[in-house]
Design a protein that fits this description.
Elements: H1 2-23, E1 31-38, E2 45-46, E3 52-54, E4 76-77, E5 80-81, H2 82-90, E6 95-98, E7 120-121, E8 129-130, H3 136-146, E9 149-153, H4 161-172, H5 178-185, E10 196-199, H6 212-224, E11 235-242, H7 246-256, E12 262-269, H8 285-295, H9 297-312, E13 319-327, H10 346-361, E14 366-372, E15 382-385, E16 388-391, H11 393-400, E17 407-410, E18 412-416, E19 418-421, E20 424-427, E21 429-435, E22 441-447, E23 454-461, E24 467-473, E25 493-494, E26 498-499, E27 504-509, E28 513-519
Parallel strand pairs: 1-23, 3-6, 3-14, 6-9, 9-10, 10-11, 11-12, 12-13, 13-14
Antiparallel strand pairs: 1-18, 2-17, 4-5, 7-8, 15-16, 17-21, 19-20, 21-22, 22-28, 23-27, 24-25, 24-26, 24-28
Helix pairs in contact: 4-5, 6-7, 7-9, 8-10, 10-11
The protein binds alpha-L-arabinofuranose.
């Protein structure tokens, strides 16, 4: 049945394209752009960690979305949903940040180990009970099931340096210390790998409302006691600024730059404002344009935070970790507003592609990013409903960008017609390029214009190959989305191969689309 309706849909798309060509209408108005990919001038490595995820104890992000318990009728591995694990493995999720967010600065790790786990109130998110069923062992085992690295955020807000030091020892020590043996008694013989450890979250806000100077002092103090066994490395990530708070980055870098390995920055894309953010579906073209225009601000924020970091760390040893990013809309009507549930549309796919392009272009400084959040919360990869799940347009983009993981950035120059709506104006084309670990050149081309196609002349300087193959993600409506009953309304489709002659190719991108191509 699903295959039949898929076939029908493809026929409808083909028919619509044929009609446009025949009438000469929309295609005649095609906008134009030109892109040069400098395959002969390779840039830095695009670390796979920029495709990182974030899983907070928030709404159904953990309970229901990931964890259903070992006795659930929903197929599970050690309590974690098998369908979700398989979907996350398919897009090669490289890194997962846990347990928060705001939740991290009130989290006491001892409450999440062993047989006696207190039931607490999740004060940040909906005031619901937190059973502590998913704790250190469960989360770390889950990351291993997914094949991802762990980015654990410590409690700087209302925890102590001793509590933090004990947690790190508990997770990483191979010795016969009391804490290491407690871990063994709880079922884990070998220490876990702990590649990243966060020194609190949003210390300027829910992490303790600290001034930058105070936060810097506290960060130095806590970071002193994060010690891992000889021969292992844990990169320490300091709590970063929000949006354009460059003073925060300035003070933190000046005061802690020599003791940390990374500093965060958080930026959420809201179509409107924090009071009324705007709906996730049923929005108009003006909201589309505002959202894309606002998400493009990420480039300015990353550029300016990086410039501050360059003053204190010209060798770029310390990375900028965009450890929370994504869209934030009004909650799904009827849902608990504290659960931050929202639908995910084609607009989110464009937001994802734009941000991944920005991180790729800033690969010299941005070594990690964590979209907020992985399951059922904000700009999610996956939405679940009972025993059902559906992958979102954002997930599809992450899948299309797998060749970007650990690839080499290739500089891109572009000129493009502009897309304007009301006072919002932006280049219609958004792009990035890499040489993948497979040796091939991969280019991502997004058309931000929701109405008009974009004809792109692609110059592939210094690259060899005769054909471009790839996929396109688009749909008939700007708010098209996947639902349990219609799981593939927004799904990538193969494009017809495009010939490359004399290092040049011409492609026409449909309106509101993300295309990735590989040169073969
Ligand atoms: O992702 C939701 C929340 O947004 C996080 O808990 C917090 O860090 C941020 O303000």
């Amino acid at each position: 049945m699903a295959a039949m309706s898929e076939l029908k849909k493809m026929r409808r798309v083909a028919l619509a394209v044929a009609l446009m060509v025949a009438s000469g209408s929309a295609w005649a108005q095609a906008r134009e752009a030109s892109v040069t990919v400098h395959a002969d001038k390779p840039g830095p490595k695009v670390q796979r960690e920029i495709f990182g995820q974030f899983a907070e104890h928030l709404g159904t992000g953990i309970y229901g979305g990931l964890w259903v318990g070992k006795n659930s009728r929903i197929p599970n591995s050690e309590g974690f949903r098998k369908d979700v694990i398989a979907a996350l493995r398919a897009i090669k999720v490289p890194l997962i940040r846990w347990p928060g967010g705001c939740f991290a600065d009130e989290y006491h790790w001892r409450e999440g180990i062993g047989n006696k786990r207190p039931v607490k109130v999740n004060t940040h998110w909906g005031g619901v009970t937190e059973p502590n069923t998913v704790g250190t062992h469960e989360f770390m085992n889950f990351t291993e099931m997914v094949g991802a690295e762990a980015y654990v955020s410590g409690n700087v807000g209302n925890g102590t340096p001793q509590e933090m030091a004990d947690w790190v020892e508990y997770m990483t020590s191979p010795t016969n210390s009391t804490l290491a043996n407690e871990r063994r008694a709880n079922g884990r013989k070998e220490p876990w790998k702990l590649p990243y450890f966060g020194l609190g979250n949003e210390l300027w806000g829910c992490g303790g409302n600290m001034s930058p100077q105070y936060a810097a002092d506290v960060t130095k103090r806590y970071s002193t006691f994060v010690k891992v066994p000889q021969g292992t490395t844990t990169l320490k990530i300091a709590s970063g600024a929000s949006d354009s708070n460059y003073e925060w980055t300035e003070v933190m870098m000046r005061e802690t730059g020599r003791t940390i390995d990374g500093i965060g920055v958080h930026y959420y894309t809201l179509p409107d404002d924090w009071k009324s953010k705007g709906p996730a579906t049923g929005f108009d073209e003006a909201a589309w344009a505002r959202t894309l225009s606002k998400t493009l601000k990420m480039d300015e924020y990353v550029t300016k935070h990086s410039a501050v970091m360059d003053k204190y760390d010209p060798a770029k040893r310390v990375s900028l970790a965009v450890d929370e990013w994504g869209t934030w809309y009004d909650p799904t009507p009827g849902s608990n507003p504290g659960f931050l549930q929202q639908q995910n549309t084609l607009r989110d796919a464009l937001v994802a592609a734009i941000n991944l392009n920005i991180f790729t272009r800033h690969a010299d400084r941005v070594k990690m990013a964590n979209i907020a959040q992985m399951i059922n919360v904000l700009q999610a990869m996956i939405l679940t409903d009972g025993d059902k799940m559906v992958v979102t347009p954002t997930y599809q983009v992450f899948g299309m960008y797998v060749p970007w993981q650990d690839a080499t950035q290739l500089p891109v120059d572009l000129t493009s017609n502009w897309y304007n709506k009301d006072e919002w104006t932006m280049q219609a084309l958004n792009a990035s390029a890499v040489r993948g670990t497979d040796g091939a050149v991969h280019v991502s081309l997004s058309n931000l214009d929701p109405d008009k196609p974009l004809t792109v002349t692609l110059n592939l300087a210094g690259a060899t190959g005769t054909t471009l193959t790839g996929q396109v993600l688009t749909a008939d409506r700007i708010d098209a989305h996947n639902r349990i009953g219609e799981p593939l309304a927004v799904a990538p489709r193969d494009i017809a191969p495009v010939a490359v002659a004399g290092g040049k190719a011409v492609l026409t991108l449909p309106p509101k689309s993300v295309t990735v191509v590989a040169l073969k």
